């Protein structure tokens, strides 16, 4: 296993789970392929774990204008209670001097270090970290889980469910008068499923908020969006 920009350092084969302590176990960390991180004159050795980018404390220190990482460790030790396990931890790295423990920070953790730093470049560093975070969110698997065409299909699936629930409500009184065996099932569909469908609608509204309603167009989006954004089953 190795860091992306490993001119002198490589991750050891056995790496520890990130934590605020220095106790290590086994974890799989992979370098980020085809993705270089550079802040001014500092090239970052970085890793990816659980979808997050992690930076070496030594690199964060250089980027912030410190001569070494001792200042970063002092900042962290004074404020360690403000860092979570998702913000910092310790890994084993191979250096010319052998295997050593090194502290790493996630982008959120690096930003928090930048908030406490008092160097001239700290403000610009914080902005840079936020730009990287925005880029990661925009290209995350969650953000890109569905294509717009797939979202349209899901919107129509919701629409079909809403129409069927309304129909079941209208048919139920007739089935009840006729003492039909399906009367109870139609009542359940018409009155008990609306809550679940409404929750699904809220999720779809959120995920399709970037879709512009164009009422003059005759396509699937223009027909389903008015229902999706206005209707709420009672």
Present the secondary structure layout.
Elements: E1 10-11, E2 38-39, E3 42-43, E4 46-49, E5 52-56, H1 57-63, H2 70-79, E6 88-95, E7 98-106, H3 107-116, H4 122-138, H5 148-177, H6 183-192, H7 194-207, H8 220-230
Antiparallel strand pairs: 1-6, 2-3, 4-5, 5-7, 6-7
Helix pairs in contact: 1-2, 3-4, 5-6, 5-7, 5-8
How is this structure best described in words?
The N and C termini lie far apart (55 Å). The radius of gyration is 27 Å and the shape is elongated. Helix 5 packs across helix 6 (183-192). 47% of the residues lie in helices and 14% in strands. The chain folds into two domains: 10-138, no CATH class; 148-230. It has helices spanning 57-63, 70-79, 107-116, 122-138, 148-177, 183-192, 194-207, 220-230; strands spanning 10-11, 38-39, 42-43, 46-49, 52-56, 88-95, 98-106. By secondary structure, it is α+β, with helices and mostly antiparallel strands. It has a five-stranded antiparallel β-sheet. It has a two-stranded antiparallel ribbon with strand order 2-3.
Low-confidence stretches: 6-35
Straight-line distance between termini: 55 Å
Number of domains: 2
Indicate the proportion of strand residues: 5-15%
Mean pLDDT: 77
Q: Could you estimate the helical fraction of the residues in percent?
A: 40-55%
Identify the strand order in the major beta sheet: 1-6-7-5-4
